[in-house]
Write a structure and sequence with these properties.
This protein is mostly helical. The protein is built from 8 helices and 2 strands, in the order αααβααααβα. Helix content is about 70%, strand content about 0%.
Length: about 260
């Protein structure tokens, strides 16, 4: 029979998972409403804090999200790395014939409109990235209280990240491999740093770059079959680079009491 602690952990994950998936399943697919989708995603993020307390942690600490001054560097560093990685991927795609410059009609845009577009992109890429990082990485790294040995957390979290995209699993093997590669890079960031903020920066940065790419380097996909592999390769390179991050002793990863 499961202990009370394990039952709470499983129930907490089920609630987070249901709220996260409802954002697309109910908000986008059932109602076709961006407002409903965004509201449900916000609920998933807001719910994580009280559930963290319910599982016996101090709110966000349940997901390795302590807010210490150095964690801002993890967030910013991950964001910059991901933005540069997306730029490199776009340039490589153009050189290899995977992408081609998009033919778009530029419209005159005021500085205020550009600022508003950037602000919208920042918010609406951060929230889902943050929610998914909690669900597929931070939760299993700490809240689940699994005594990970070695680096087994990394492939496990990558698998959870891939399976969490339940509405895209039918897109084919290449997309599943791409998602698994994304998951490996983001899980490696948490495993090496002991802080989910680095993974959040990487994940958010990649999604933000996708949202902003049309304004900086507009491209269109020419080779649909090769595009997922290009994104996967860039993320595997990121995962390899993250191996250079000094891994802190495990006791330094524990939350403050």
């Amino acid at each position: 029979m499961l202990s009370r602690e394990r039952r709470r952990t499983l129930l907490a994950f089920a609630l987070l998972f249901a709220c996260y998936q409802a954002a697309e399943g109910v908000g986008a697919r059932l109602f076709g409403s961006f407002a409903v989708q965004g509201s449900l995603m916000m609920i998933a993020v807001a719910l994580a804090w009280p559930l963290g307390h319910w599982m016996g942690f101090r709110g966000w600490q349940a997901y390795a999200l302590e807010w210490r001054p150095f964690n801002l560097a993890w967030l910013g560093g991950g964001l910059v790395m991901a933005l540069l990685a997306k730029y490199v991927a776009a340039c490589l795609g153009l050189a290899l014939g995977v992408y081609r410059p998009a033919r778009i009609a530029f419209e005159e845009t005021t500085s205020l409109e550009l600022a508003m577009a950037l602000g919208t992109a920042v918010v609406f890429t951060f929230i889902p990235s943050f929610a998914e990082d909690i669900l597929t990485r931070g939760f299993w790294y700490r809240a689940a209280r699994i005594g990970w040995r070695g680096a087994w957390f990394v492939p496990f979290s990558a698998l959870m990240f891939m399976l969490n995209h339940i509405y895209r699993l039918g897109d084919g093997l290449s997309h599943c491999l791409m998602l698994a590669s994304f998951g490996l890079a983001y899980a490696m960031a948490l495993w090496r740093s002991g802080s989910l903020w680095l993974a959040v920066g990487l994940h958010w940065g990649w999604n933000l770059a996708n949202a902003l790419l049309d304004r900086v380097l507009p491209v269109e996909v020419v080779n649909e079959a090769a595009a997922p592999y290009l994104s996967a390769a860039v993320h595997l390179a990121l995962a390899a680079m993250l191996l250079a991050v000094p891994k802190l002793p495990s006791e330094m990863h524990q939350p403050r009491q």
